[in-house]
Amino acid sequence: EVEAVPLVMLAGSPVSSTRIRTALSEGRVADAAHLLGRRYALAGTVVTGDRRGRELGYPTANLRLHEDRVVPGDGVYAVLARLAGGEAPLPAAMSIGMRPTFDGQLRTLEVHLLDWTGDLVGQSLEVEFVDWLRPELRFENPEALVAAMGRDVAETRLRLAEET
């Protein structure tokens, strides 16, 4: 027996997987969360990167996803990160993209955990997307990138102040 149910409507349009995927691909993670009824999350294993973030003063955990999932559009995001077995979420800034300042050839997912130190290689990490901060940009030099990263971290702190 099949029972038809009416579509769920939000903002005058039906909630659909296509609408959610479109919001994610455009970096509108807050809109996707509203449609889903929860924050969108990705989980992966931390793998060794080229250690450029560490050299710039913003070490990152490079994620290799556990499963094939929709990855939000390229840009910088405020996220909450959970370590395997960790209870409390950790505030973090996440960059998704090609690293154009360094002529990157592969799309990467890099997470900078605020006020946290340690080695995460080989560990599982989950990130919940809270808000989009800015598009991925190419900077003239590493110093300009570091300045932007400082602004990104400050903005992440502001956006996550009520979340942690």
Q: What are the segments in which pLDDT stays under 50 over at least 5 consecutive residues?
A: none
Strand numbers in spatial order across the main sheet: 3-4-7-6-5-8
Shape: globular
Major sheet details: 6 strands, antiparallel, barrel
Rg on CA atoms, Å = 17 Å
Number of helices: 4
- What order do the helices and strands follow? EEHHEHEEEEEH
How confident is the prediction overall: mean pLDDT? 93
Task: Provide a descriptive summary of the structure in words.
The chain has four helices and eight strands; from the N terminus they run ββααβαβββββα. The relative contact order is 0.20. With 164 residues, the chain is an alpha+beta fold. It has helices at residues 17-25, 29-36, 52-56, 142-160; strands at residues 9-10, 13-14, 41-47, 61-65, 75-83, 90-97, 108-113, 124-134.
Offer a few descriptive terms.
164 residues; alpha+beta; 6-stranded antiparallel barrel; 4 helices; 30% strand
What's the topology here?
Blueprint: E1 9-10, E2 13-14, H1 17-25, H2 29-36, E3 41-47, H3 52-56, E4 61-65, E5 75-83, E6 90-97, E7 108-113, E8 124-134, H4 142-160
Antiparallel strand pairs: 1-2, 3-4, 3-8, 4-7, 5-6, 5-8, 6-7
Summarize the structure.
With 164 residues, this protein is of the alpha+beta class. The chain is built from four helices and eight strands; from the N terminus they run ββααβαβββββα.
